[in-house]
Amino acid sequence: MSPVNSDPSNQASSGGGMPLTRKELRARERFLATQNQDIVEVPDFVPEEVTVPAPVAAAAVLPAPISAARRFSAPEAPEAPAAAPQAASVPAAVPETVPEPVQHVDVRQGDAGRQGDAAVAELHGDAEPRHDVHGYADVHLDGHADVHYDDHAYLEHHEHDEHGYDEHGYVEHDEHAAHEYDSHHGYEAYEGHGHEVLDSPAAAKAPSKKVRHRRRVVALLITLGVFVAAISIGAQFLRPILGMDRLSDYPGPGTGSVTVTVPAGSGPKAIAGELEEKHVVANADTFLKAFIAAGGELSPGDFQFRTEMTNADAVAVLQNQDASKVIYFALSAGLRINESLEAISKGSGIPVQQLKALSDAPAQFGAPAKAKNLEGFLAPGEYRFPLGTAGKDIMQKLVSTTLDELKAQGITDPAKQFDTVIIASIVQAEGGQADYGNVAGAIYNRLKPGNSETNGLIQSDAAVTYGLGTKSFNFTEEQRLDKANPYNTYAIAGLPVGPIGSPGKSAIDAAAKPTANEYLYWVTINLDTKETKFSKTLAEHNVYVAQYNAWCAANAGRCV
């Protein structure tokens, strides 16, 4: 802070001492020096000096201060300079010290100040004083003395030195930084401190901590709400995709009647999907878990369900746990007609004679005209019918299953359907399932016209024994040559008069689409494994027949 001038002339005009900053002293001294004005001697009052802190750097040499009265009084018209003033000697140097302030002094805008500034402005040729900066300049030494300037006071800044001086020695002022004095501008001091209140937007009070906290909480709640809403909306779209909106089970017990056929070799997963598709169960996955947990095995056949059953009830149907509530029977592939009728009678309670009478009139069920009965047309599998189902309805179901399979293989002509069932019944009896295609191919090779190797004879042992009414693999030479047996394929060329049993789906498919080969002979050499050997010549075939006889010798009582 600059020393405080105690010029009596200034006191006379303003009524008290007015402090001058170092900036003001330097500006006035430069002004007077360039105008050849007399320099007022430094007042006698010299306050105590105090060492300036390191960061504050003072000028090495300062001119002597001028009186405050000179600063604020209106100057007269300048006279021509006569000679260098004798009293204008400038001290060699001013110590880099400032007086320790004794009191807190405020520089306020008053009449004297306005008069002084007017004088300076008049010398510049301006009607009113202009200033470089806005705001206040505070200089704090030892935390005590504050010097405040209003919105039109001078502020120390490095830009002042860059402006330079004009021909009169004035400090140049930026027009954009100049402001006219307003009679309404004044000072507002903080109570008990004398600090002026800043009347500018920068002094606007920042939001309180409580307001900032409330704003953060509101922003957090809004973000959380948007996040929850996004999750809810996304879940609505994902539920159908992920299957989250599917029922896991129906409450049961269900209504109506739905028939589901389980083909031989079908797995539980495929049946579970069909049950869901037909609305028997609500969810194929949960039904499959219930079926596996029950430890049951899937058996082929027709099963009667209700719509919207519980998983447990549907599992019970597939495992035949409700046999007392339905008609149930199972037909194995290869059974002859009398064996099939006995199984149906046992499961349904319908007398065999009644069932036989139905079988002996096959045309009513859609069988080909060549058929003498329903032999070969009663499809193997497990069947369930509601209690009280009529015998005719049961027989119709079995015949329709076989006819549907023939049509599925492209066999639609009734006469061809009949021949295909005959070949399929021989394939079912003669070979293992893995060899059905080759057996069927060999049979068709034997039936080809001009075949000099077998002359159209199929030579099936299973066909001969069927005609004999036995199931023995042994028959006499006389029986082999007996043409009275219409199923004797050793004595009669071509197909036998009818099927020799009930072929399964695989055998029918093989007969409808046989494997192309050049075989004419086949023999099963192991009745346990159904291993079958194929050959093109009789000599090769006889070698395999010897292997069959050796197996029969090693397994007494099996080849009877």
UniProtKB/TrEMBL annotation:
What are its E.C. numbers? 4.2.2.29
Where composition is biased (Polar residues), the residues are: 1-13
Enzyme superclass (EC): lyase
Could you tell me what reaction this enzyme catalyses?
a peptidoglycan chain = a peptidoglycan chain with N-acetyl-1,6-anhydromuramyl-[peptide] at the reducing end + a peptidoglycan chain with N-acetylglucosamine at the non-reducing end
Give the stretches traversing the membrane: 217-238
Q: What Pfam families has UniProt attached to this entry?
A: YceG
Marked site (Important for catalytic activity) residue numbers:
430
Q: Its family? A: Belongs to the transglycosylase MltG family.
Q: What is this protein called?
A: Endolytic murein transglycosylase
Lineage of producing organism: Bacteria, Bacillati, Actinomycetota, Actinomycetes, Micrococcales
